Amino acid sequence: MFRAMTGLLLGLAIATASPARAGERILIDEANPPFMYADAGKPAGIYNALISEAFRRIGLAADMSAAPWKRAIAGLDAAENGVGGIYSNAERQRKYDFSDKLFDEVIVVYVPKARAFGFSGVDSLKGKTVGVIRGWSYGDDFDAAVKAGTIRTEETASDASNFAKLALGRIDAVLAIREAGKVAMAAQGVGEKVTALDPPLSSNPSFLAFSRQAGKGELLGRFNTALGAMRRDGSFERITAAALAK
C-alpha cells in the first residue's frame, strides 16, 4: 500500500511539475557568411559562436536558428525571438532593447570595375540602383534616401544573389559587409570584375536585440557581463578569428 501511494504521488508530481525551460530563442540571418549563415541547416558563423558562448557562461541555453532576415525581424517585432547581428537605428531604438556591441561591420559599396565612380557618401548613390538584403537597415541616411526615392534598391535574400545580379549588369552597385562581400565575390567568381569603392559607406556596430515587450533587460545585462569577460580573456578574438578562417 505504501509503495502504491508513493508511486502515485511521484507520478502526480511529475505530471504537475513545470516543464524544463527551453533555451532563449535567437535568430540570425541564414545568408550572410562569415558573420551569420546556415550550414547544412544549422546556424553558423561569428554571431552564432559568440552568442552561444556568452549564454553558456551565464548558465543558459541559446536556442539558435538561422532564418531569412525578414522572418527574423518579424519574430523580433512580435516578441517571439531575439535577433543576433542587428544594427541599431532611430526606429529600432524605440522598439528594441540592445546588448553591448558584438562587432563593427564595415559596409562597402561594390561596383563593376568597368563602371566605377567617385564615392563620397550616400549622395553618390543617388539615381542608382543598389542591391541590398531584404529587411536590412543600412543606416538612417541611406534608409531616408531610399524612402525619398532618390536611391532605388533591389532586394534579395543574400549577398551572393546581389553579386550575381551585379555581374549581369542588372544593378549599379551592391552594399555588403566587407568580409561578407569577399566571401560572396569568391563564391560567384567575380573577384576580377568587381571592386570596392573607398571610403566605406558606414561602420555599423551589430548587437543582440529583443523586443522591449519581452522584458529581457536583466538577461541582456548578464549577457553583456559575459561578453565583456570574453573580450578580456581573449576568447572573443579566438572565436572571431576561427569563424573568419572557415
TrEMBL record:
Residues 25-246 form the Solute-binding protein family 3/N-terminal domain. This is Amino acid ABC transporter substrate-binding protein. Residues 1-22 form the signal peptide. Pfam families: SBP_bac_3 (PF00497). It comes from Rhodovastum atsumiense. The keyword Signal applies. SMART domains: PBPb. Keywords: Signal.
